[in-house]
Design goal:
single chain; Lipocalin; elongated; two-stranded antiparallel sheet; 72% strand; mainly beta
Length: 246
């Protein structure tokens, strides 16, 4: 249902613009490297553990992100992003763990799963534009589809979290000698949580309107609320393609 609403909103916006436009397709993959992933569910009565420190991450973790772009009136951009992410862990429980409504005993072999899928719709406007520099800003509507799950034998428990997150968007691009260096990110912090997703990298042309991209992505965030305490960071080494469709 959330995917249908996401795509329907995009189509309605495109229908209402009625202006000359340019499309783009940005696909990236690479390798993901887990930093901390601290979990305590429920927040008050649960046991805090670190997925990455107390268990073994099963890999390699190969991410996928697909972003469709639509540019109109030269300075205005609309992006639709699909970014699934799943991390699997296993190993013996280092201590007794109370998770949701289930007790997992020290030494039990645990299979852990952490999902953090992201669906976003972003509006971005170029605020400063020269032959070399482009600086822009905007806002992002994000749907977060998350799950934390622990399984040991016939025992299993999970916590799902589906919700809306508003984010600010920033963009900077510098072009020289056919090479483009750029920074782009969504982020917001305040109250009980925060969310950051930043990319720094570059692209070079390989064919007409087709570019090879590479760089580093930083994903961090979480929440400290009554039913969930979870903060995580994932680092990405990124490669991908960028196709500018005239």
């Amino acid at each position: 249902m959330k995917k249908a609403v996401f795509l329907f909103s995009l189509l309605i916006f495109l229908y209402m613009t009625h202006v000359s436009a340019q499309w783009s397709l940005d696909v990236e993959t690479g390798l993901a490297f887990q930093g901390y992933n601290d979990v305590r569910i429920p927040n008050v009565t649960g046991t805090e553990f670190n997925f990455n420190g107390d268990f073994e991450l099963q890999g390699p973790v190969i991410p996928l992100r697909i972003r469709l772009g639509y540019t109109f009136n030269e300075r205005n951009h609309l992006f639709a992003l699909f970014a699934p992410l799943g991390l699997n862990y296993d190993g013996p429980a280092p201590f007794d763990i109370r998770f949701q409504n289930t007790n997992f005993n020290e030494g039990e072999l645990i299979d852990g799963f952490y999902k953090f899928n992201s669906y976003r719709l972003t509006y971005q406007r170029d605020l400063y534009l020269t032959d070399r520099w482009t600086l822009g800003a905007g806002f992002t509507a994000k749907i977060r589809d998350a799950r934390v799950q622990l399984t040991a034998g016939d025992k299993s428990d999970k916590k799902d979290d589906l919700g809306f997150v508003p984010l600010l968007n920033l963009f900077a691009k510098y072009q020289f000698n056919g090479f483009t260096l750029w920074f782009q990110g969504d982020g917001l912090a305040g109250g009980p949580g925060r969310a950051f997703d930043f990319f720094l990298g570059g692209k070079i042309p390989v064919l007409e309107n087709l570019y090879l991209k590479g760089g580093y992505r930083f994903l961090e965030g979480g929440a400290d609320v009554s039913d969930v305490y979870n903060f995580t960071v994932v680092n990405f080494a990124i490669v991908g393609i960028y196709w500018q469709i005239n």
